[in-house]
Design brief:
The complex is a heterodimer of chains A (253) and B (438). Chain A has 253 residues and is an alpha/beta fold. Chain A is built from nine helices and twelve strands. Chain A has one domain: 3-Layer(aba) Sandwich (Rossmann fold). With 438 residues, chain B is an alpha/beta fold. The chains are: A alpha/beta (253), B alpha/beta (438).
Chain lengths: 253, 438
């Protein structure tokens, strides 16, 4: 479904990703771990299509299509979703109206007409339940005045509403207490299917106790330096990142 | 646009018109008014039409929009009811004003409560001299601007609306101002609105053009009196043709425990200059002033406001927002005066602008002058681009860039349109904002 080949990305002239390779198939959950500054959030932003990043080499294929040429909304319409590390507050934009617009834009891209109001409301109700998000939150402007945990839950709620093929969760666990973490993870688990895939970016192993990954990759210095299964995450948790840094500090820039 | 050709002071032109229009002016109805008009033209002669050297017109050169090619007589366009019906709102009582004159046969007054008195100002002044002494030019002193003086001197008519003491006018009154015609004309409509003690009124004013084929300049002055315990909601939408320019003064006096809520939304017109002057003359009065201007394509919108806290224990809050697109110029100049006696004043003012184009200009100047020592006051202004992070966020949810911009700008504007309490007008406003804002 997702195939990243030799991806090189710079920000303001500084190379952040230095030839990254990754393949994600339908039905899989991949975790990307790594120390601060390794390029994890850059990877998430580049997949979603943020403009500030300059792709200097490589490709990102999504269902065989090179999405680097596509705008962020076109990627979303193709089925890519990014759960933000720091979700934006947008005062004055009602969450429900905005989601209705988003759902219908994505439907239009697939050649479908706008969703019936009744059907939309039913879906809204169902997905709210799924991520245990209060209607008084979704009744407000997007993320306005939300706590950190509420914002993260709202990201998962939006993901549930938009039903993407590939969801990239950028440090969704950061700033969450254990209860919120569990709710978010349960939401993700309920949405897992044979047809979709998840890329879970995290600094800590903790989230992966709830969202069990099929593969774990270590991102360091702009490259994936190690891949393995869940055990790799546990090893990182007990040993920290220092041994990775030592082992791979020789990588030529 | 050629600037060089319009350097001349055009006041001589208007002195001449003053002589020519003697028989048509308001003064013909009333001796007191006649005197006031004579005095005004004398004062105007010293000042002339303001250019950018006059401090209050530093960013708005009126002489670019009003010169001596303009006359005072236009060919009356024969508008039919069917030409303007689409401009009516809901079932509101509608007073149609064409080029500043009340047109009874096109108006819809069946929903106008019997208690509310709507008449030509000319008729009112002819009937009684008290109005002439108090309400006509009752609020202006030596500070009257040159354009106000010109209006006082040259005005021929306008509308007078009176809500009697204690009457709560539930349904809004819609004042539909239409500019129309085939000649370059300066119009000087003069309106008087009085909300009596304990009474209330919602007055909607919309400005638009129908069959306007030539440049016009409307120099409008409206004097409003909100008496003790009275409430006036004044909602204004300006959406004239790009051939039309207007200078529009609302001079408001608010009495004890009076409430005045103003919303001014300016969306179109070659040049719009608004002056909203509120004089607070009774304690415990509450003033809310909201404004939105959307300007682009070489157009110019200037919002000047003045809040005078003359007495203690009053509240005023002002928020103006601007969206300046490519080639547009916006001006905001808000002044708050807190006089020495006006202790325990709460006065707040804010101006927020979004610049969209590379070639867009905003001049903003919030001003606060405080002569009392026990007050809570603040003012501030911000100007920026559309939030890139928010745009990206919306795009990652499947909204293309244009739609995402529209959603964000709509949200920016909504804070203003939401302050309109009348649903029919608020819905209309939101639709019109969506048309102009991208």
């Amino acid at each position: 479904m997702l195939e990243i080949k030799n991806l090189k990305v710079s920000v303001e002239g500084k190379e952040i990703l230095k030839g990254l390779n990754l393949k994600v198939n339908k039905g899989e959950v991949h975790a990307i771990m790594g120390p601060n500054g390794a390029g994890k959030s850059t990877l998430a932003s580049v997949i979603a299509g943020k403009e500030d990043y300059e792709v200097t080499g490589g490709s990102i294929l999504f269902n065989g299509k090179d999405i680097l040429e596509l705008s962020p909304d076109e990627r979303a319409k193709e089925g890519v979703f990014l759960a933000f590390q720091y979700p934006i507050e947008i005062p004055g934009v009602s969450t429900i109206n905005f989601l209705k617009t988003a759902v219908n834009e994505i439907r239009a891209h697939k050649g479908m007409g706008p969703m019936e109001a009744k059907e939309f409301l039913a879906m809204l109700k169902e997905k709210q339940k799924l991520v245990q998000i209060d209607t008084n939150l979704t009744g407000r402007s997007v993320n306005e005045g939300f706590s950190g945990g509420e914002k993260k839950r709202n990201e998962i709620f939006q993901m549930a509403m938009l039903n993407p093929q590939l969801a990239v969760l950028d440090e969704t666990d950061s700033g969450l207490d254990i209860d919120a973490l569990r709710i978010v993870a349960e939401g993700v688990n309920k949405l897992r299917s044979k047809e979709n895939a998840f890329l879970v970016i995290t600094h800590y192993q903790r989230l992966l106790e709830y969202i069990i990954p099929d593969f774990v990759h270590v991102l360091y210095n702009g490259q994936i330096v190690k891949s393995g299964t869940r055990e790799l995450a546990l090893e990182l948790e007990s040993k920290g990142y220092d041994w990775i840094k030592k082992e791979f500090s020789e990588i030529p820039a | 646009m050629s600037v060089a050709t319009i350097k001349r002071d055009t006041s001589a032109k208007w002195l001449e018109e003053f002589e020519l229009t003697a028989g048509n002016r308001l003064g013909a109805a009333n001796a007191t008014v006649k005197e006031k008009q004579q005095k005004a033209i004398t004062e105007f002669a010293e000042k002339g039409i303001p250019d950018k050297k006059v401090e209050d017109y530093k960013y708005t050169n009126i002489r670019l929009y009003l010169n001596d090619e303009f006359g005072m007589k236009g060919n009356a366009t024969r508008l039919k009811s069917s030409d303007i019906r689409h401009l009516f709102l809901g079932g509101h009582a509608t007073i149609v004003m064409i080029n500043g004159r009340f047109v009874h046969e096109l108006s819809s007054l069946k929903n106008l409560p019997r208690e509310v008195v709507v008449k030509n100002l000319f008729t009112v002044l002819k009937e009684t001299d008290t109005v002439a002494g108090i309400e006509f030019n009752g609020q202006f002193d030596e500070k009257a601007s040159p354009l106000t003086l010109l209006n006082t001197a040259l005005t021929q008519d306008g509308i007078s609306i009176t809500v009697p003491k204690g009457y709560d006018c539930k349904g809004p009154l819609h004042l539909l101002h239409i500019s129309s015609g085939t000649d370059k004309v300066l119009y000087n409509p003069r309106n008087v609105v009085k909300v009596g003690e304990g009474a209330s009124l919602t007055l909607i004013e919309s400005y638009c053009s129908v069959d306007l084929d030539e440049k016009i300049f409307t120099n409008s002055v409206t004097e409003m009196v909100v008496e003790k315990d009275a409430t006036l909601n004044n909602y204004i939408l300006q959406e004239e043709d790009p051939k039309a320019s207007q200078s529009n003064l609302h001079q408001v006096s608010v009495g004890t425990t009076g409430k005045f809520n103003s919303v001014i939304v300016s969306l179109n017109g070659a040049m719009v200059r608004n002056d909203l002057n509120v004089s607070i003359n009774g304690e415990n009065a509450e003033i809310h002033m909201h404004g939105l201007f959307v300007v682009k394509d070489g157009h110019h919108i200037d919002n000047h406001s003045l809040v005078e806290h003359n007495v203690p224990n009053c509240f005023s809050n002002e928020l103006y927002k601007g969206v300046v697109g490519d080639g547009g110029t916006g001006v905001f100049n808000g002044k708050i005066f807190v006089k020495q006696d006006a202790q325990k004043t709460n006065a707040y003012q804010s101006n927020k602008n979004i610049l969209l184009g590379d070639n867009s200009t905003i001049n903003t100047k919030p001003q606060l002058e405080i002569y009392a020592d026990d007050v809570k006051c603040s003012h501030g202004t911000t100007t920026g681009r559309l939030d890139e992070e928010a745009l990206f966020y919306l795009q990652t949810r499947g909204l293309d860039q244009d739609l995402a911009r529209k959603v964000l700008l709509g949200a920016f504007a909504k804070e203003i349109s939401d302050t309109v309490k009348d649903e029919a007008f608020r819905n209309h406003l939101e639709k019109r904002i969506q048309v102009h804002i991208v």
